[in-house]
Write a structure and sequence with these properties.
207 residues; alpha+beta; 5-stranded mixed β-sheet; 4 helices; 9 strands; 36% helix
Length: 207
C-alpha cells in the first residue's frame, strides 16, 4: 500500500461510486415522494384520524427507505477502481483506500460466473490479485480484499486479493474495464476463467 497518493493523470479510472449514486438518488427521490403522497392527500381531502395513522406509517416506511438509499449513494460517491503504471487503486471510503503495486504481484486475472443456475441471471466478475510472498493480513486497507478459496488455476494461490466488480459497473463500463486491467497487468495476466454459477456472491462485490 502507498498511502497519501492518487492515481496518475493518465490512469484508467472507473468511478463506481458516482455511477451508483446516479442509480440510487432517483430511487430515493421516488421513495420520498411516495412517502409524502399520503400525508398530502390527507391534508387536501381532510381525511379522518384513521387515515392519518395509516398515512404516518406510510410516510415512515417510504421515508426511511428513501433516506437510506440516499445515504448509501452519497456515502459511496467517491468509490473507484483505477489502473495505472503503478498498480491497482481501490478507494471504497476514507478508511479503505489502497493501491496494490504491480511489482508486488505475481499474477493477475479475472474470474467470471453467472449469478443464477444454468447460466441464468447477471454475469458477475472479479479481479483476482496474487501477491508475491502472500497477502498482507495486517494491512487494514487490504484486509477487505483477502479471500481464501480454491482457484483451480495453476500458479494462482488459494489465498489472494479479490476485487469483485459490481454488476451495474460491468454493464456500464463493460469491455474497457477488462481491457484496462489486462493491458496494465501485461505479462502478469493469467487470463479470464469461467466459474460455476454462484462462485461469486453479491457480498463479494465492492460497492
Amino acid at each position: 500500500m502507498l498511502p497519501g497518493r492518487t492515481p496518475s493523470p493518465d490512469a484508467a479510472m472507473f468511478r463506481f461510486g458516482k455511477q451508483r449514486m446516479r442509480r440510487t438518488v432517483p430511487g430515493a427521490i421516488i421513495a420520498l415522494a411516495l412517502g409524502l403522497s399520503m400525508p398530502i392527500s390527507c391534508l387536501v381531502y381532510g381525511y379522518g384520524v384513521g387515515t392519518w395513522v395509516f398515512a404516518v406509517l406510510w410516510f415512515l416506511v417510504f421515508g426511511a427507505a428513501g433516506v437510506f438509499m440516499g445515504w448509501v449513494g452519497w456515502a459511496d460517491r467517491d468509490a473507484y477502481l483505477a489502473f495505472d503504471a503503478t498498480g491497482v487503486w481501490w478507494w471504497h471510503d476514507k478508511t479503505a483506500h489502497a493501491v496494490i503495486p504491480w511489482d508486488s504481484l505475481d499474477s493477475v486475472g479475472l474470474f467470471l460466473c453467472h449469478q443464477g443456475p444454468d447460466d441464468s441471471g447477471h454475469r458477475l466478475a472479479s479481479l483476482e490479485l496474487c501477491p508475491t510472498g502472500g497477502v498482507q493480513e495486517h494491512d487494514p486497507a487490504l484486509a477487505p480484499l483477502v479471500v481464501e478459496d480454491r482457484s483451480g488455476v495453476p500458479g494462482v494461490p488459494d489465498r489472494r486479493y479479490r476485487i469483485g466488480i459490481p454488476v451495474f459497473a460491468t454493464r456500464h463500463y463493460g469491455q474497457p474495464l477488462l481491457e484496462a486491467a489486462r493491458s496494465r497487468a501485461a505479462h502478469r495476466w493469467f487470463g479470464e476463467h469461467e466459474r460455476a454459477a454462484g462462485y461469486l456472491r453479491p457480498q463479494d462485490l465492492i460497492s
